[in-house]
Amino acid sequence: MNDGTYNLTVNATNSSGTVVGNISVTGVTVDNTKPNVVTINAPSTGANYSASITSSIILNTTVNDTTLTVDTVFFNISNGTDPFTTGTAIQSGDFWNVTLDLTTLAETTHTITVWANDTVGNINNSESVSITIDNTAPTVTLVNSSFNTTDHTPSVIFNYTDALFATANCTLYFGETSYGSNSSTANATDTTITASTVPDGTYSVNVNCTDGVNNEGNSSSITVKISTTPTLSSGGGGGSRPSLIQATSLTTTEQTYTRLGNYNNKLEFELGGNTHLLTVKKVYPDRTKVDFIIESNLTYFTLKIGESKTIDIGENELLYVKLISIKSSKADIVVKKVLKKQQPLQTITLPKKEVVREEIPEETPIVREEIEEIIPLVEEEKEIKKIHSSIWAIVALVVVIGILATYFLVKKKKFPF
């Protein structure tokens, strides 16, 4: 039966077909049509919210029914793996409203579906919108470390990360003043903001990034000193232009120096207690690489954008240089000192001296026989020597007796009495 309002009459007839009675029912409505969800007025699809900024929102829809009346309207929230249904919406004409507590929603994208029911149970759930909940601020990190410069439009490099948004609006601050921004900074990408003209001074510098739901993240701060009082070298005779010198005290933390290259810029630094000059000799026309020289020992080297070198110039510390970018034929570099690694003491193990023990061979029977033969000969030789000694003693005694006898004979002749 088609939708509409009908009057029903029931007739009672006998066996001969004569109507013997009837009953009528008027105003019977037939409704096979679902309520009409005209539109979801709020929120708009694709809207982003932070519960820390907006704790609740109004869900509003327009629903009507051309046959009967709308009985109830409610909203279903997907909420990731934990969906739920709001309470019954409050009617005001064709408008139906309910308040949604955003603090109950997980940080993700949610689908909100309208459920409209008429008085005979026809349900329409065909209309929905999506919203995103993000309560976490972006994480902002500065690539630069503190630096000194004579450039009044210095560049600062940073990046930000966010779990939900691909871009953010990021602003560069010197102190409390904004000096540049990027409204479409890409997520997880090193980005450079070049400051508008900044007066001389020493500044605390940071970057603020705001995501799609106005969560704000701030970087840590670095110190930037801007001064237009450089040291000028004479540059020699012949009318050559002076060399602009930027002086720095190197640390093991990276320091950024920008716009090197104009007028043969030099960076003065100390390593190992000695002063050295790093000079930009050439910025290549294609702006992809730069030639440098360390004048104290005539060390030449070339860097491409993004390339770095650690250079030994004969001190007890090393020089680290990285080329960040080239703008208007000027180089932006990062420098720091690197401590030389101490060579570990070498332990020398001397080879053990082998002690060679001479083995005394056992006497063979032949050797024993030879020794037994030699022993009698030695004894015989000893006896002969004894005999010779005795003979010589007797000879000596005879000579002495002879001398004494001669002496007494001569004495008797001279003195006969």
Largest sheet: 6 strands, mixed
Quickly give the CATH architecture of the largest domain.
Sandwich
**Global Rg:** 57 Å
What is the count of distinct domains? 4
The secondary-structure class comes to mainly beta
Low-confidence stretches: 230-242, 363-367
Shape: elongated
Number of helices: 1
Helix content: 10-25%
Mean pLDDT across every amino acid position? 81
Distance between the termini: 208 Å
Enter the CATH topology name of the largest domain: Tick-borne Encephalitis virus Glycoprotein, domain 1
% residues in beta strands: over 45%
Describe this structure in words.
The protein contains 1 helix and 31 strands. The protein is mainly beta and 417 residues long. It has 4 domains: 1-30, no CATH class; 36-133, Immunoglobulin-like, CATH 2.60.40; 139-226, Immunoglobulins (Immunoglobulin-like, Sandwich), CATH 2.60.40.10; 231-339, Sandwich (Tick-borne Encephalitis virus Glycoprotein, domain 1). A hairpin with a 2-residue loop joins strand 16 (167-174) and strand 17. The model is unreliable at 230-242 and 363-367 (pLDDT under 50).
